[in-house]
Design a protein that fits this description.
Layout lengths: L27 H21 L15 H8 L43 H16 L3 H6 L18 H13 L1
The structure holds flavin-adenine dinucleotide.
């Protein structure tokens, strides 16, 4: 990942696309800028892993426009609410709201962005909804779900499945 301008104009677009409008993908200026950044990212990686360019079998880049399209996040941000001093940590929303029965979780809550934090906020939201201290229970060793108990087909391996999907999409 890298810091990058989010403004649509930077990507050759007059404004943020409306929900469901994916025509930006065919905009030649958008494609040119995206390709340029993709090359820069690969070149940066090659500085620490020389020769990696010759070993890439699949490449795809996501931009703020991609993020905006798929997650509908404001300005295509991947990390929820702006991480400013006044919106950091305890200054972000918690799991409880003023509306009875409505709980919050995700990157914009007090646990902050990233997969682990989003997961933690989900656990706390579930705990608040169930009126249980799930965090304390898990820390005390309670196992709430067992691997393989989700009903996935036997031998199903998520990374291998994702790779097969990528190969199919490329064809
Ligand atoms: C390119 C990239 C790389 C990242 N790499 C890492 C990493 O290596 N490690 C890490 O820990 N974190 C990483 N992150 C951050 C991490 O992915 C996010 O912080 C995390 O997924 C946020 O989870 P979330 O559930 O809050 O939001 P999301 O995962 O964004 O889920 C929100 C969901 O709500 C849906 N939605 C939005 N609006 C509506 C609506 N009106 N109605 C119905 N559904 C709606 C969206 O489609 C989406 O499915 C990365 C993020 C990006 C973009």
């Amino acid at each position: 990942m890298t810091l990058i301008p989010a403004e649509p104009e930077f990507w050759g677009l007059p404004s943020w696309p409306a929900v469901g409008d994916d025509s930006y993908q065919r905009n030649s200026e958008y494609l040119r800028v995206k390709e340029a950044f993709t090359e820069i990212m690969i070149a940066r990686v090659a500085e620490v892993i020389p020769g990696i360019e010759q070993h890439i079998v699949w490449r795809e880049a996501a931009t703020p426009l991609t993020q905006h399209r798929y997650t509908r996040s404001t300005n295509g941000t991947p990390y929820g609410l702006e991480m400013s001093i006044t919106q950091f940590g305890p200054f972000r929303p918690g799991v409880r709201t003023e509306i009875s029965g409505l709980f919050l979780c995700g990157a914009s809550t007090a646990w902050g962005p990233a997969v682990e934090s989003a997961m933690l906020s989900g656990m706390h939201a579930a705990g608040a909804a169930c009126r249980r201290d799930l965090d304390g229970e898990i820390r005390a060793g309670k196992v709430l779900a067992r691997l393989g108990a989700s009903g996935d087909p036997e031998g199903w391996e998520p990374l291998a499945a994702a790779k097969q999907l990528a190969v199919r999409t490329a064809r």
